[in-house]
């Protein structure tokens, strides 16, 4: 604050002191209102800035091995896209005799990742063997433009090895998941079929039985308030034996 501003404030205070009580109250009210408006504008601006920042893209990295090759996975875990992503591979440590990069073409040019998108590419050979145990770490320089603010972000970081991934294990896990899902769908369909047909059959049964009742009849009985006794359904009995 310079001398002129100080003198102006003192002049205003002198005017307020020389004025009547009503004028003093009005002036003070005006000052308080002005401060409140300025505070509201400031905090509104800060809230908007924080909200925009919360939508920033966030890149996460995973270093893994598949059949003797090191792969780098890049995931955008943020809320907006990251464009012109550029990765500069600087060094690799704790990788035995393999100290040179062999970068996949996917990392040779800039790329864009939208939220929850990821890419994976090979970056080097693994130095692990019978005599050498490794725990690779790579140094990266990362640069990209935030989709929410169009500002450029640059930083350097180390990515550490997360473990070996067996491709066969991946296939087995996927098949197990598919098998489990198909069984759940089959059981659900069986329960629905038993209800709609009025029978009681297990998923392993391959019999074609005539339906005892149907949904239309049940709705009609419910509308007419008709109570029916338990019916002797076809299929299996209470001991799961075929009737």
UniProtKB/TrEMBL annotation:
Bilayer-spanning residue ranges: 21-43
Keywords, sorted A to Z: Membrane, Transmembrane, Transmembrane helix
Tree of life domain: Bacteria
Protein name: DUF4179 domain-containing protein
């Amino acid at each position: 604050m310079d001398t002129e501003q100080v003198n102006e404030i003192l002049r205003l205070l002198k005017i307020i002191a020389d004025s009547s009580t009503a004028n003093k109250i009005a002036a003070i009210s005006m000052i308080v209102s002005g401060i409140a408006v300025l505070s509201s504008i400031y905090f509104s601006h800060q809230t908007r800035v924080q909200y925009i920042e919360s939508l920033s893209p966030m890149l996460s990295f995973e270093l893994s091995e598949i059949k003797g090759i090191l792969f780098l996975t890049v995931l955008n875990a943020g809320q907006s896209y990251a464009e012109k992503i550029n990765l500069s591979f600087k060094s690799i440590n704790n990788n035995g005799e393999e100290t040179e990069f062999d970068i996949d073409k996917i990392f040779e040019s800039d790329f864009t990742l939208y939220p929850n998108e990821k890419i994976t590419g090979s970056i080097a050979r693994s130095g692990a063997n019978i005599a050498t145990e490794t725990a690779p770490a790579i140094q990266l320089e990362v640069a990209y433009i935030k989709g929410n603010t169009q500002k450029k972000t640059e930083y350097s970081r180390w990515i550490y090895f997360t473990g070996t991934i067996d491709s066969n294990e991946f296939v087995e896990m996927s098949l197990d998941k598919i098998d489990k899902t198909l069984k759940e769908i089959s059981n659900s369909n069986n329960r629905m079929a038993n209800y709609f047909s009025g029978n009681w059959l297990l998923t392993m049964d391959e019999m074609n039985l005539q339906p005892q009742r149907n949904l239309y009849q049940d709705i009609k009985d419910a509308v007419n308030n008709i109570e029916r006794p338990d019916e002797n359904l076809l299929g299996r009995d209470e001991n799961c034996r075929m009737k």
